[in-house]
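anyone seen this seq b4? input:
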Amino acid sequence: MSMLKIPLMAVAALALTVHAAAAQQTKTIKYAHFQPAKLDQPKHAAATAFKAYVEANSGGTLKVEIFPAGQFGGDAPTMEGLRLGTLEMAVVHDGAIAGTFKPVIAFGIPFLFRDQAQAWAVMDGPFGQEFGEMMAKQVGIRALALADNGIRHFTNNVRPIRTPDDMKGLKIRVQPSPVFQRLVEALGASPSAIPWAELPTALQQGVVDGQENSVTNILAASLYQHQKHISLDAHVYSIHAYLMNERFWQSLSKEQQKVVRDGVEIAKWIHRGMTTAQDLNAKDILEKVGMTVTVLSPQQIGAFREKAQGPVREYVEREVGKPLVDKLFAAIAAQDKGAN
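predicted toks r here
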């Protein structure tokens, strides 16, 4: 064997060793969400931005695989995967989270926030940070950020809803979360808990008269095909939480954690921006797809608030403790004070 071949073989062996070590160091983030794999969908646009950022800035040590449109499974399998660590990351709505981490129902108290800016300030402030840490400690799932699931409104196929009395006798689909059931009951309608994936069929078959959801979700699932009326009552600012398995999070280096946090921050604002644009243009967007849109005055919305907020708040306080609810309302009051 020539002397030339020996160094070449050594270099090749070293290259293979380095490549193998790098492959062993690469961690894969399986990332699930429930919206269609289209870039006009806030969750998916945010997910693809997260993937691009993390893979470009982690030095090849992190890879992201996106599972859109519920490919990983429905609400319960996704939350179970996050808890067990078979799924590293997901963006999940509050109704799905409630079965695993009950304190999230506090965000379902109706008419909490004045507008999106106020909600974001609370979510990004000390209350939101404490919420994320509490979830990590209690159930092993870390909430890295809270983004928008949109402002929720009532739709139905029977009549326009202008007052709480118009809700009487209607059967309304709600998320599988007791707090939304209490909200609908407080307004005089009958709640029916139906998972998100089953909702279009339930509406089409007339299992329920209506449902409550954001513009984003009405468009994502084409719910307008089965619902004639929508009333823009804005009863709940609904959240999507950016969740990660806590053991996986702790397995990351400080540098990798920073890359993930920065990627989530980018994704969060894309998600918020796209969802808010739809919320603020709700009337035009929904009329164009054939819905009859009823815009409520502040006085009309006040009648819904007066009937619903108190009973739902009392229920949430019984379920998760008055101190947590008081802390949330104090964080909102602090933002109001800061805005004046």
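Confidence is low (pLDDT under 50) at residues 12-23. The radius of gyration is 23 Å. kinda curious what u guys think
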